[in-house]
Request: fold
Amino acid sequence: MTREILLNAFHMNTVGHQSPGLWAHPRDRSRHYTDLDYWLDLARTLERGLFDGVFLADVLGVYDVYAGTPDAALRHAVQVPINDPLMLVPAMASVTRHLGFGVTCALSYEPPYSFARRMSTLDHLTKGRIGWNIVTGYLASAAKGMGKPDQAGHDVRYDIADDYMEAVYKLWEGSWEDVAVVADKATGVFTDPARVHRVTHDGPFHKVDAIHLCEPSPQRTPVLYQAGASGRGRTFAARHAECVFVNGPSRAVVKPLVGDLRRLAAAAGRAPEDLRIFALATVILGRDEAEAKAKHADYRRHISHEGALALFSGWSGIDFSGYALDDVLRQVRTEAMHSAIDSFTASDPGRRWTVRELAEKVGIGGRSPLMVGSPAQVAEEMLAWVDETGLDGFNLAYVVMPESFEDIVDLLVPELQRRGRYKRAYRPGSLREKLFGQGARLSASHAAARYRRAASTRDPACAIC
Reply:
């Protein structure tokens, strides 16, 4: 049976996301990211195209690795200025009924207790359409902004994250029983105290001694996304994530990542169907190949090469201001994203990238593969990626807003539907039900399931006994 492709729109509450310099294109509207109508229009467009979700990336801190200052990032709007992504979700949810929302929140800088409430609140307000992209952060500037001398080491950040996840699982899954809220007007009892339980967590990095502040939301635990592609990141994803984002310039790079994730998930006692894997991709579409190529050539004239190197310097932790454009990339290990430099070096040893080629590549779509062509050509390429690598779908970045997403909805989606590889209607239910075809709660094989509290044996109709 052929699988339907899943699609997320990849965006950020900022001007320049994955294509540095393209905000200056005459048709681009991303300068209006502070206008709520900009986001409402996007939500309506994506739901019209039956997108599974909009994935809102985020980063704390600024990209100041390049030349040791934030000047290049500020000059070219490289993910700065940037606003809080969570503020957008209730408004976008109010004009849609099915679109999911994946939001990026760094667990390094917020206690589990308050964060658990924020996610439960969004799950209630969206009627179960919220997901959380679990990140640990990768910019030293973020740590300093939060009053820390520096960020923790790469692998230590994942140790902290494992501890954090245990704390929030206890709050979401184990504090309130399903029947704790009785809302009995006759007796005046809203919540049965015997069915609300104190959570205690005494981990190596986090401590909690409290009841969760929110009554059970539709999904309890939000759909869990994760994008770490390093060895330690993949181990973390295999235990915790339901949706994993991978990144690489070619199928040869992505295929082993997908296989390793599924192998690690099986080793953690999870079923293959418990994991959805998405690759980042950027598509440039025309009604025919010539129009698409002309559009691509037009876009390339607006690339900021300095902005692209500032962005990649932040991702990789390597200051590319000191490199000559014709220098060949080498694998260098830093405390930033290991996968950023690996995908252009160790993961793809048959290809030698120069700094100049890197800047041109990152200038449109960041680290993602670029697919340019007619709807039929791009659909063929996407299906080849899915069928050859074992991916479930794509995280689609934009080049020009809203043009990129409108082209996908109007040109690519009908082509994928014609081939029987894309849905024609949404499944009912929560985001988790839409993605996995199961109930709204996490699967029983997930690590969080062990913290679920069995319902008490008291009569649920009795609010005070």
Notes: Confidence is low (pLDDT under 50) at residues 333-339, 459-465.
